Amino acid sequence: MTSTEIGGTAGMAASTKDEVGLDHTAIAYGIAAAIAVLFNTLLAWVKDAYDPLNTAMAKTLGHHWITHGVAVVLVFLIVGFVLSRSSADWINSRYGAVYMLCGAVVLAALGLAGWFLLV
To answer: Is the separation of the CB atoms in 12 and 95 below 8 Å?
Structure first.
């Protein structure tokens, strides 16, 4: 199997130098996932700190965590769709979106752990 055939599978695109990297749509949704992870953390902080928002979210879909989850999924889908339709190359690095997502997950985990330890 040639490197072009390998690069064309599983959302990968091969470059002219036989380097394999993520294609535009994968990068767009990787960035969207990083944004959704950070939005999840921010929403958890605000929701816990501002009780009227927590109450409103509980009334919206029956429980505040259901509304929270739906909001995070919508952020992911909308941002991913918008970025995937744009013509700009958001990240020049082959795996920049992966590194961005990993960094966002670590930052969000530390942020949530710190929040719940302090509150």
So the answer is: no
Asked if 98 and 22 touch (Cβ cutoff 8 Å), the reply is yes
d(CA 29, CA 104): 14
Contacts for 59 with CB less than 8 Å, ≥ 6 apart: none
Does residue 101 contact residue 33 with C-beta atoms inside 8 Å? yes
- Looking at residue 18, what is its pLDDT? 54
Cross-strand bridge partners of residue 12:
22
Give DSSP secondary structure letters for 56-80: HHHHHHSSHHHHHHHHHHHHHHHHH
Question: Is 7 or 55 the better-scoring residue by pLDDT?
Answer: 55
21 pairs with which residues across the strands? 13
Tokens of 105: 């997950």
| pLDDT at 113 > cutoff 90 | yes
Would you tell me the crossing angle of helices 24-49 and 51-61 to the nearest 10 degrees?
120
**Six-digit token pair at 18?**
């036989």
- d(CA 13, CA 82) in angstroms, rounded, equals 21
